[in-house]
Amino acid sequence: MASANVYASIITIGDELLIGQTIDTNSAWMAQELNKIGIWVHRRVAIGDVWEDIWKALDDESRLSEIILITGGLGPTADDITKPLLCQYFGGKLVVNEDALNNVKNIFLNILKRPMIERNLKQAEVPDVCTVIQNRRGTAPGMLFEKDGKVFVSMPGVPHEMKGMMINHVLPVLQEKFQMPPIIHRTLLTAGIGESFLAERISDFESTLPSNIKLAYLPNYGMVKLRLSARGRSEKLRAELEAEFDMLKQKVSDVMVIDEDLTMQQVVGNLLKEKGKTVGTAESCTGGYIAHLFTANPGSSVYFKGSVVSYANTVKTDILSVDPQTLKDHGAVSKETASQMVKGALKMLKTDYVLVTTGIMGPDGGSPEKPVGTVWVGVGDGHRTELHEFHFRFDRQRNIELTATNALNMLRKFILNPH
Amino acid sequence: MASANVYASIITIGDELLIGQTIDTNSAWMAQELNKIGIWVHRRVAIGDVWEDIWKALDDESRLSEIILITGGLGPTADDITKPLLCQYFGGKLVVNEDALNNVKNIFLNILKRPMIERNLKQAEVPDVCTVIQNRRGTAPGMLFEKDGKVFVSMPGVPHEMKGMMINHVLPVLQEKFQMPPIIHRTLLTAGIGESFLAERISDFESTLPSNIKLAYLPNYGMVKLRLSARGRSEKLRAELEAEFDMLKQKVSDVMVIDEDLTMQQVVGNLLKEKGKTVGTAESCTGGYIAHLFTANPGSSVYFKGSVVSYANTVKTDILSVDPQTLKDHGAVSKETASQMVKGALKMLKTDYVLVTTGIMGPDGGSPEKPVGTVWVGVGDGHRTELHEFHFRFDRQRNIELTATNALNMLRKFILNPH
Fold first, then answer.
1. What is the pTM of this model?
2. What's the complex ipTM?
């Protein structure tokens, strides 16, 4: 089967999504993976554990899309609605699946080393009209149904269980069945320019873009990603996309961080790896967040050595050798303190570069001279130190994020421009 | 107007949600705030910047819900679909709103200190049939429409702009208009027990729960929240909920962290504040993440002094005084190293307590003796040291989260049980 467009709907089931206790990260991941094999997500719908709402969603979405992916409603404490409903919707009855049963038993006997309870065994029951998708990462099996040429897949809501099923089973099946040309993307990252100014700057480019290539703006904490997309596998289309992407790169060269779909911390990490250099941080206001961003990348131990989170002034003086008199005269949030933090961090961490932050993230701690959002960032390599003052004007979380982004960008420029 | 149940639908507009480039955090926040004033979210729907999809979503959701909250589609680079569509849907024409225009001008002249462009000025245009909701945090105004007794609100997708409008305008208007009894919750946090075992343990309790009180399980990284909910403002109902909550607490007393809706790091922070004690961390495998969790809390400087992120062994030896011979004999991920990290961290950070982690988060770095997921956590106060080995079996991100949760819980128990 092949058609012009293949659409998918994602249905997430669970009260926790409707009362706001859980943030849905599954759908974004699923959409990315579906895009790679040429399937476009048409709609995402979140509903509660309510029989008629689930039934209606299955009806509605199967009118709009060829593929309906369902997550949630299968946990051991779910209200036993989803599985009986799927049974009735597709006309079958619940039976024990031997593979799923063995999987549940194996998890309890060999991995958790705990006795099983009735509730766990019931997870091995599936409608007899589905293809069972074994769950290698948990106890609830997945189920694949076909009806009137549409494919329905029900998976658990636990992210790593759903991901395992998607990668090992669902995506290969969909790719085989629909054989869509992939959606190809070219993405670049900019920093330090607002969305509207970026749009103004590339408005000529945008207006002459051929209709088969789409441009998207993706703003995020002081950065904007620009993405060109097209659908197809021909060499001609690829070349066309490349040519447009080259033109776009020229338009934004001065604010471009990288011409790939990477995060700022990945870009800085790759740069350090390339140059065989190491980095450490001394963080006051970011409280370890930049160190966390670095170390969230697998393999970061090659270039990231460590951090001194100097939240208290005593840690600034004791470990980073900041002069108490400097703190007294200029305050912790000052050029002078940031400068001494750079020196102290280089001495203690023995890295090629250090990145330091000191600021007021709010909601309290501001003053007329130094309002909430005032931040000093420093970068140094033992020969040269760069210090810069920033003023953010948001809430605590956003101020921490913006400080981290701008600090990492300062470090990136510092490494690239060895004056 | 008052009725038995008031339902809301949330519609999010934007291709970025369908291609998975953005994770929707707005909906969860909105749902929580709506719940507080007695409004239940019936469905959440995400759609792209497509005229007919937006039109259909407005039609469908207004058949199901009294309140339709729309976010996104209003940015300066949006494809100019949402505002003209709302105009046509509600039968009006676009006019410049003076307040919104002054707001845009003020942001550019006084805050951004940049020249304005046409694209920015266009953001001050609104349909003449709406109530304008001024945006104090950005350039795109919100719009409130009423049609056939239903309320429609369109807001920007930028989280802190949407939140400002909701708090200052939308929620008060909805509360005034619908006057719903609030949904009251009582929540407790457990750690160290799986969802199915928790369910087994409280199955008697669950089966005798009165029908007007609902129980929900909310699992998250080694913790499960249990929440009882009821709707109403009567004293009798409150007392009934309290009594059931007390019973639930007794059933789970040994695994309960706190009988409030708090995060583990808030619980530990509050405990330290209460006792007037300070803490610091020495983090290898968690790479600053625990420090970040502490410092994300406003006011954490009272109890959190700092951290040594000793990702490289040289930082463990140089700053934390771990004996190089210990690293050679036992490895960085060992009881012996964790124990020396506790001593070194206490010496350097001069806090009442320290929390240390060293482990292998994956995907690489594992061995048959120490597979990925092996972690040593240590807690100490100078008199006593507790060390514990954990084995997680997930991906890097999840292993970091689980290590942080379990480490914080170890610290909590250590503080509470001064043997």
1. 0.85
2. 0.85
